[in-house]
Write a structure and sequence with these properties.
119 residues; mainly alpha; 0% strand
Length: 119
């Protein structure tokens, strides 16, 4: 079902540009990750990052894809990028980001980066 919902969003918004196109890449990439289509998800999430710029959701799901595909070096590098983003003063932390941040930390066995109660 997640794949079908993501695909519907992607089909609807893929013809758009800017923020809406970036959001479509994020949603569909997340949906593909959830149905274990990590290679496809990785490509969409990389595109989403190019469109959206650094953000917690895209970085967290990209790191998880990289890890699931067996590239733990890239996964940990992406996690460090996420850590730098979240500890920087310029990122406006969205409480909705917390679930993805918690999930990537658990998957990678990484130290806790941030909690929603910190902001």
């Amino acid at each position: 079902m997640a794949e079908r919902i993501g695909k519907a969003h992607f089909d609807q918004y893929s013809r758009l540009s800017g923020e809406q196109a970036g959001r479509a890449h994020t949603i569909y990439g997340m949906a593909l990750y959830r149905v274990d289509r990590w290679e496809e998800a990785r490509g969409l999430l990389q595109s989403a990052l190019e469109i959206n710029g650094d953000n917690a959701i895209d970085l967290a799901f990209l790191a998880m894809c990289q890890y699931q595909l067996g590239d733990s070096t890239a996964a940990h590098a992406t996690h460090r990028q996420l850590s730098d983003l979240l500890t920087g003063h310029q990122y406006a932390f969205n409480p909705d980001d917390q679930e993805a941040v918690d999930e990537v930390q658990e998957l990678l066995g990484a130290p806790t980066l941030i909690t929603s109660s910190s902001h």
